[in-house]
Write a structure and sequence with these properties.
Strand content: 15-25%
Shape: globular
Order of helices and strands: EHEHEHEHHEHHEHEHEH
Bound molecules: 1,3-dihydroxyacetonephosphate
Strand order of the largest sheet: 1-2-3-4-5-6-7-8
CATH architecture: Alpha-Beta Barrel
Number of helices: 10
Structural class: alpha/beta
Number of strands: 8
């Protein structure tokens, strides 16, 4: 299994930010791990141009579940693919919170992504209140069951565990808490997709930075990271890519 360092730029970045991509590629032209950046949709096309002929993969942060139609402001998977995306993040907690996305909707989006031949990065994660109440595994188990599309395989689906309270806060679970969740998810995936589960990448996300990446990547069943803030700067994301390549 090739590990995956994925960056989620969220609502950050303009044309000028592509300089960071060039700097990243200059410093890490051929990393051992896979390297993916998901910029805002406005930059997918340009970033894909910048990435042409390199190992950098480009993805989207969301898509509509329907192939086309009267959905003002939305983008279909076919459009994202046309712009150069190979991956689509679905069910990020910010979309679940800001846009009321349910497991059913996330699954429909993930289905549209895999049916179009792209890779769905399915995000799940508990809130701080849920963790404090001892419900972490129950919550993420339900989210996983409800969000994984039919026909999921090791090559068309990636799971990202992102505790909501660790996103953008500088706080992370302990290494043993991460280990507990990732090992639980591997088992749960086995129930959902059988033997394929062994090859499905399970990413950790939430305040990953150069200073904690090496420790997190040493945790069993952590197959990479989904990185927010630290993916915006070539030096930081490059250091995380290097840590994952060495893991
Ligand atoms: P941060 O790395 O900024 O905590 O964000 C994580 C995230 O939400 C990536 O999708």
């Amino acid at each position: 299994m090739k590990k995956l360092a994925a960056g989620n730029w969220k609502m950050n970045g303009t044309k000028a930010s592509l300089a960071e991509v060039s700097a990243l590629l200059a410093a890490h032209p051929a990393p051992v791990c896979e390297m993916l950046l998901c910029p805002p949709a406005t930059l997918i096309d340009r970033m894909a141009e910048t990435a042409k002929g390199t190992t950098l993969l480009v993805g989207a942060q969301d898509s509509h579940a329907k192939p086309q139609g009267a959905h003002t402001g939305d983008l279909s998977v076919a459009m994202l693919k046309d712009a150069g995306a190979t991956h689509v993040i679905v069910g990020h907690s910010e979309r679940r919170t800001d846009h009321g996305e349910t497991d059913d909707l996330v699954r429909a989006k993930a289905q549209a992504v895999v049916d179009a031949g792209l890779i769905a990065i399915v995000c799940i994660g508990e809130t701080e209140a849920e963790r404090d109440a001892g419900q972490t595994l129950a919550v993420i188990g339900t989210q996983l069951d409800g969000s994984i599309p039919l026909g999921a395989t090791a090559t068309n689906v990636v799971v990202a565990y992102e505790p909501v309270w660790a996103i953008g806060t500088g706080r992370t679970p302990t290494l043993s808490e991460i280990a507990e969740v990732h090992s639980f998810l591997r088992g749960r995936l086995r129930g959902l997709v059988g033997e394929e589960a062994a090859g499905v990448r399970i990413l950790y996300g939430g305040s990953v930075k150069p200073s904690n990446a090496t420790d997190i990547f040493a945790v069993p069943h952590v197959d990479g990271a989904l990185v927010g803030g630290a993916s915006l700067k070539a030096a930081d994301f490059g250091a995380i890519v290097a840590a994952l390549s060495a893991a």
